[in-house]
């Protein structure tokens, strides 16, 4: 348990921040995590994440958590089927023998990481408002309500897309992609569940055509998350709030945007049973990752390199944490600043690649000829 002010403050208890916390814990380096949520269960944690060999899995191994991860990971979640709007098969990958990208619910991954650090290290209900260097030259964090904690040698912004630490390093801001995901679900008690599970299987079922998609993905408890992706204005869900929350919304979306799609695929949305949530896709411009090192502060995960969804975000973030923790160990706490510089030299090009990959992938799935583009891409990947 920390007694005086710890040397390192981590902003955000998402997968990236918690992975750094765990690695510092293992290396017996003093830290504290500030998280805006009031508790681990206060806010729903959303969908499922695929954890890759060579990045996310490597970080979990180095953190001594790989066996626990494997116990919760869903290897059959790697099944991936893609069809077009008429239900014609475009790709069908079975998970047999594959170990490179198992799925885990985001909620479970967060809990696994939380269980690996002492509870007292996480300060729940601490919404960061700003970060600054105080008169003594050390770093300070101001929270909502005005309270300040100061005396840190390093503040690590792991506070996601809208990081409050980023402005100290770069003026870059996330840009809206023009694409929004509308998320709902199909629970196991749904009268259509059996049909859905036979159609969608144990992993991801994706319908692409005409610059939009329907994605159905199995969760750890057997339910399915359902996403409809569309080109929509940035504030669409807010402008259409009444419609968005109405029980007729799922039918409205299918009629309005998917009228010429087969009911074989649109029934997946019509028969869904959960509330809808809007998930607009934002990313940082790739050229924003050219910042000069600023002593006392750094970023990792989405705070550093927010990208459009490409299945790499959480992997990239946990790998950032591994590289930062290893540089701190190598350089020693006496050379903390040097460690951060060395971390950033490796992370920045990786972050640019991640953002460009996300732009390319979402561009492909939301192109008018997405089926053609996807076939070419899948072939080039040997799928
Ligand atoms: C539609 C969609 C689908 C995705 N699918 C995948 C996928 O299949 N695979 C994959 O790898 N990635 C996926 N991602 C991306 C993935 O969710 C993120 O890359 C990953 O969660 C980043 O982790 P992080 O810890 O850096 O940030 P976050 O997960 O955003 O965590 C940030 C933490 O900081 C906290 N926080 C935020 N602001 C403050 C504040 N002011 N003060 C204190 N705390 C704060 C938050 O509450 C949160 O706990 C997807 C993203 C989207 C949008």
Topology of this protein?
Elements: E1 8-11, H1 15-26, E2 31-34, E3 48-50, H2 56-62, H3 66-72, E4 80-83, E5 89-93, E6 103-105, H4 106-114, E7 122-123, E8 128-133, E9 139-143, E10 148-152, E11 154-157, E12 175-186, H5 193-200, E13 204-209, E14 212-218, E15 224-231, H6 236-239, H7 241-244, H8 249-257, H9 263-270, E16 277-283, E17 297-299, H10 302-305, H11 313-331, H12 336-365, H13 370-380
Parallel strand pairs: 1-2, 1-11, 2-7, 4-13, 11-17
Antiparallel strand pairs: 3-6, 4-5, 8-9, 9-10, 12-15, 12-16, 13-14, 14-15
Helix pairs in contact: 1-4, 1-11, 2-11, 11-12
The structure holds flavin-adenine dinucleotide.
Task: Write structural notes for this entry.
It contains 13 helices and 17 strands. The protein has 383 residues and is α/β, with parallel strands linked by helices. The protein has two domains: 226 residues, FAD/NAD(P)-binding domain, CATH 3.50.50.60; 109 residues, D-Amino Acid Oxidase, Chain A, domain 2 (2-Layer Sandwich). Helix 1 runs parallel beside helix 11, helix 2 packs across helix 11 and helix 11 packs antiparallel against helix 12. The N and C termini lie far apart (49 Å). A seven-stranded mixed β-sheet has the order 5-4-13-14-15-12-16, with helices on both faces. Strands 7-2-1-11-17 form a five-stranded parallel β-sheet, with helices on one face. It binds flavin-adenine dinucleotide (FAD). Flavin-adenine dinucleotide binds next to helix 1, strand 3, strand 16 and helix 11.
